[in-house]
Known about the structure:
Layout (H helix, E strand, L loop, with lengths): L6 E6 L2 E6 L4 H7 L4 H12 L5 H10 L2 H16 L2 E5 L1 E4 L29 H9 L8 E4 L9 H14 L4 E4 L2 H11 L3 H11 L3 E2 L9 H8 L5 H13 L3 E8 L5 H18 L2 E8 L15 H14 L5 E2 L3 H4 L1 H7 L6 E4 L22 H9 L4 E5 L5 E4 L6 H4 L11
Parallel strand pairs: 3-11, 3-12, 4-5, 5-6, 7-8, 8-9, 9-10
Antiparallel strand pairs: 1-2, 12-13
Helix pairs in contact: 3-11, 3-12, 4-12, 5-6, 6-8, 7-10, 8-10, 10-11
Amino acid sequence: MVVNVRIYFCTLDSRRIFVPDKNRQMIELLSDLKDEVLIAIATKVEKGERITPEEGLYLYENGELAYLGVLANYVREKKHGNNTYFNKNFHLEPTNICLYTCSFCSYSRLIKKREEGWEYTIDELMDMVKSYDGKDVSEVHIVGGVLPQYDVKFYTELFGQIKSHRPELHVKALTPVEYHYMFKKEKISYEEGMQRMKEAGLDSMPGGGAEIFDEEIRDQIAGGKCSSEQWLSIHEIWHDLGMKSNATILYGHIENYAHRIDHLERLRSLQDKTGGFQTFIPLKFRNKDNELSHLPEVSNIEDLRNYAISRIYLDNFDHIKAYWPMIGRSIAQLSLAFGVDDLDGTIDDTTKIYSMAGSEEQNPSLSTAQLVNLIKSVGRKPIERDTLYHVLKDYSEVEFDEDKEYKGYVSLPVV
C-alpha cells in the first residue's frame, strides 16, 4: 500500500530539508543528505524557483528515488493538494496501417502488410461513436496511422459528423505527425490547416508524436516523421488560436538523460511563450514486437524517477499524467506519490497502441468505480474532469453499489 505523504520543512544539522510528517522513517534518510547541489535544488523547489537544465541533469544522474519523490510530491500537492483527476473517454483509431517505419512502434503495419491491420471508413467510425450514445463519456480521443486517404477532407468531415451527432463530446484528435503529412499533401500552411481543423470541430490536441526532440536520436527511431521543430511549431500555432494541447516524451530507449532534459527544456520554453499545454505525459518505451526489441525496458524505479523529475522541471505545466494502460494500475498508483496528479480516463478497451507493445494492461478498461477506488485506496481525492480540466464531479464521498457487496472478507482500516 502507498502511504500518502504530506511534507514540510525542518532544520537538521543547520540545513533546511523536507521531512514527511506522516512517514517519520524518511527523516533519517533525508537527514543524511550531504550533497550540496541536491540541497540547493531542494531549496529552490521550496521557494518556487525554477531549476536549470544543468540541475535537471544532475537530478537524473544523482537524485535518489526517495529524494525525488519528496520534492515532486511537494510540487504536486502545492498545485493540486490531494486532487487526482480522471475523465470518461473512449478512443477511435481509424487505422494502424502507416507510411512511417518508426523503430519503436509495435502498433503500425506497413502498407505491404495491410491485411494485418484495419482501415475504417467514416461510417464505421461514426458507428463506433454512436455506440456510446446514452453513455456517460465526455471525450473521444482520435489517433492512428498515417495513410494518404486519411487526409484533410477525411478528418474535417469526421470531426463535423461527430459534432453534428453529439455536440458536447470533446474531440481530442491527431498529432503533428498526422497534421504535417496532411497539410503537406494538401499544399496548405500549418496555420490554414489548423484553422480548418478548428472550424471542423477539433477541440484539443493530444501530446503524441513528440517521441524525443534531439534531432539525431529522433532520426534514428522515427526518421521521416515531422521534425522536432515542426512538432513544436504546430502546437504553437494551435495555442495561438486560443486552443489547448498536451505533450509527451518517449523515454527508455536509446536516449540518455541529457536528451530527456533537452526535451523538457524545449517544452518548458514553448509553454513560457504560449501557456497552451495542459499536461505532460511520459510514455515508456515497450519492447515487444518492434525493431528495438533487443533493448531492455527501464525499471519501474526509473519510471517513478522520470515522473518525479518531470514534475520538478516543468514548473509551468499544471498537470503530470500517468497513462495507466501503459504502466499498469499498481505503478500508476505509486506514481501519485511522485508528482503525478492525473490518471487519464476509463478508456473502455478502445486503444491497442500499448497493448500491442507488451504493456501490463492488455485489455485496458476501468469502470468509474474501479478508477475511483484505485485513487482512493492510496489516500488521494478522485476528481472527474473534462478534457480542459473543468471539475465535473468530486467522488470523495461517493459509494458505489459494488462497494457494498460482500466480498467474502471484511475490509479493516489501515493503521
